[in-house]
């Protein structure tokens, strides 16, 4: 069963990872990357690292949602659906990525991998968390909330106009004072 689940997640992960570079729109590439990383999160869960897999899934969903919001706010092509090239310096990127792959593969093959010392922990997720964070877990959780608050505050403060600018202080103006006509209020 594990082999079937592995192939069920691995093939779409690689295929959608390739599609990130084949799509000609930022929005489609974003969704392909999200799908690929969700499959990777599933593979990590399959390895028995449930906490880490769920963190990968949640982090990728939030990251891609934020990316989509910023893409709509700041790109000249708001929906990201207009054709564009996702590849820049194709030859240089191909040479660099092929060389890096060969170097990493050589390192994997030639590395003197250590043998396991000691017994396997009863809870590998807890052991992983303690080895990564140690006594700093509360600090990292607080930092996460601070970063999220910073992102929200940045988005809120970067807009020049709000609903009170459009419809007046009491929100009862009959026609919105929009600088450009059209849209929802027309």
Task: Indicate the topology.
Layout: H1 2-22, H2 26-46, H3 50-74, H4 90-110, H5 124-133, H6 137-158, H7 163-167
Helix pairs in contact: 1-2, 2-3
Task: Describe this structure in a few short sentences.
The protein has 186 residues and is an all-alpha fold. It has helices at 2-22, 26-46, 50-74, 90-110, 124-133, 137-158, 163-167. It contains seven helices and no strands.
Q: Can you give a write-up of this model?
A:
With 186 residues, the chain is an all-alpha fold. It has seven helices and no strands. Helix 1 packs antiparallel against helix 2 (26-46) and helix 2 runs antiparallel to helix 3 (50-74).
H/E topology pattern: HHHHHHH
Structural class: mainly alpha
Main sheet specs? none
Globally, the shape reads extended
| Mean pLDDT metric | 80
Low-confidence stretches: none
Q: N- to C-terminal separation?
A: 57 Å
| DSSP strand tally | 0
Quote the beta fraction: under 5%
User: Which percent bin holds the helix content?
Assistant: 55-70%
Gyration radius, rounded: 23 Å
Instruction: Give the count of helical stretches.
Output: 7
């Amino acid at each position: 069963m594990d082999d079937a689940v592995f192939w069920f997640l691995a093939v779409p992960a690689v295929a959608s990872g390739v599609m990130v570079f084949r799509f000609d729109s930022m929005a489609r590439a974003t969704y392909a990357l999200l799908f690929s990383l969700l499959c990777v999160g599933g593979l990590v869960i399959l390895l028995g690292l449930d906490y880490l897999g769920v963190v990968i899934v949640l982090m990728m969903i939030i990251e891609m949602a934020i990316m989509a919001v910023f893409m709509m706010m700041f790109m000249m092509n708001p929906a990201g659906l207009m054709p564009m090239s996702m590849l820049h310096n194709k030859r240089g990127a191909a040479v660099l990525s092929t060389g890096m792959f060969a170097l990493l593969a050589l390192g994997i093959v030639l590395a003197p991998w250590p043998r396991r010392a000691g017994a396997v922990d009863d809870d590998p997720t807890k052991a992983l968390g303690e080895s990564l964070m140690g006594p700093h877990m509360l600090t990292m959780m607080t930092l996460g909330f601070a970063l999220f608050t910073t992102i929200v505050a940045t988005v809120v403060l970067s807009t020049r106009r709000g609903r009170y600018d459009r419809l007046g202080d009491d929100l009862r103006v009959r026609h919105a004072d929009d600088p450009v006509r059209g849209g929802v209020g027309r």
